[in-house]
């Protein structure tokens, strides 16, 4: 059987583009998302490719939801582990710190940091058992700090520490753990950015354009491949040079 990849936040943006690309490449793909239409998204990808693709609802911030999701997914596919995990699910709840509510702080930390913990815990033993694995964690250029994103920056900086620690601990099992730092990528996540601000950001990007979800999916797919067998603990920027 082909290698199996589990992608969270797979119903939209970067997660969807990654799932599609991986399915085209012949991976079996498990799509997880809190969206109700995730099964349809999976069917859509399956019909475009010749790979097996399933979609199941999950709330990555919730331990029990992740456990149930993983158990159901491997049962449906008749397998006992997955080879690849892309911790991609994400939200923003931007506000200047003086106005940020405890709920906005909590939601963002939970989806990104608890989400990465909850999902990685499901898959890691199986990867160790088979002495092969790829874990990709989505950080953000905002990890360096960004006005209105104290919650998001803290979560995305946490993802860097999480990645580097797992890379140290799991390398001996042939599990590569890497983080992606996307810049300004054209997905629903940035749809609410006002046109004026969008222009200012684009002007700071040497390539003078926003990134596409496919720009990021291409890098994720490479890092998940057999070829990426000596990249571990790396922070890969996909920003068009926004952060230099
Ligand atoms: N778009 C950008 O410019 C950008 C930049 C840097 C980092 N990122 C990161 O890339 C990742 C993907 O973002 P995107 O731009 O594709 O956004 P997106 O909004 O298009 O997709 C995010 C997906 O995550 C899902 N999700 C949200 N909360 C969830 C939960 N609790 N459980 C399961 N699924 C959940 C959403 O339903 C959605 O389908 C995120 O981690 C984001 O922080 C994006």
What is the count of distinct domains?
Answer: 1
User: What is the CATH top level name?
Assistant: Alpha Beta
Element-by-element helix/strand order: EHEHEHEHEHEHHE
Ligand catalogue: nicotinamide-adenine-dinucleotide
- Can you give the mean pLDDT? 97
Extract low-pLDDT stretches: none
Number of β-strand runs: 7
Strand order of the biggest β-sheet: 3-2-1-4-5-6-7
What is the molecular shape?
globular
Please give a structural write-up.
With 244 residues, the protein is an alpha/beta fold. The protein has a single domain (4-238), classed as 3-Layer(aba) Sandwich (Rossmann fold). It is 45% helix and 16% strand. The protein has a seven-stranded parallel beta sheet, sandwiched between helices. Helix 1 runs parallel beside helix 2, helix 3 packs parallel to helix 4 (102-130) and helix 4 runs parallel beside helix 5. The longest helix has 29 residues, at 102-130. The radius of gyration is 17 Å and the shape is globular. The termini are far apart. It binds nicotinamide-adenine-dinucleotide. The site of nicotinamide-adenine-dinucleotide has 28 residues, from helix 1.
Which structural traits does this protein have?
Rossmann fold, seven-stranded parallel sheet, alpha/beta, 45% helix, 244 residues, binds nicotinamide-adenine-dinucleotide
Set down the secondary structure blueprint.
Layout: E1 4-8, H1 13-24, E2 28-33, H2 38-48, E3 53-57, H3 63-77, E4 84-87, H4 102-130, E5 133-138, H5 150-170, E6 175-182, H6 195-204, H7 213-223, E7 235-238
Parallel strand pairs: 1-2, 1-4, 2-3, 4-5, 5-6, 6-7
Helix pairs in contact: 1-2, 1-7, 3-4, 4-5
This protein binds nicotinamide-adenine-dinucleotide (NAD).
Nicotinamide-adenine-dinucleotide binds next to helix 1.
């Amino acid at each position: 059987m082909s290698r199996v990849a589990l992608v969270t936040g797979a119903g939209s943006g970067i997660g969807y583009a990654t799932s599609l690309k991986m399915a085209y490449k012949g991976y079996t793909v498990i799509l997880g998302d809190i969206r109700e239409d995730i099964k349809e998204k999976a069917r859509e990808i399956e019909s475009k490719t010749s790979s097996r693709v399933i979609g199941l609802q999950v709330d990555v911030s919730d331990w029990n939801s992740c456990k149930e999701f993983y158990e159901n997914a491997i049962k449906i596919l008749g397998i006992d582990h997955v080879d690849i995990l892309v911790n991609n699910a994400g939200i923003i709840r931007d506000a200047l710190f003086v106005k940020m509510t405890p709920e906005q702080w909590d939601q963002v930390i939970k989806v990104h940091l608890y989400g990465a913990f909850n999902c990685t815990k499901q898959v890691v033993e199986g990867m160790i058992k088979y002495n092969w694995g790829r874990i990709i964690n989505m950080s953000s250029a905002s990890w360096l700090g960004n006005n209105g994103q104290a919650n998001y920056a803290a979560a995305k900086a946490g993802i860097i520490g999480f990645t580097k620690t797992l890379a140290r601990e799991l390398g001996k099992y042939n599990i590569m753990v890497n983080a992606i730092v996307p810049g300004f990528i054209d997905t629903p996540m940035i749809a609410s950015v006002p046109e004026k601000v969008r222009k200012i950001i684009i002007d700071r990007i040497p390539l003078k354009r926003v990134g596409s979800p496919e720009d990021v999916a291409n890098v994720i797919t490479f890092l998940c491949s057999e070829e990426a067998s000596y990249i571990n603990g790396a922070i890969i920027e996909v920003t068009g040079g926004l952060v230099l």
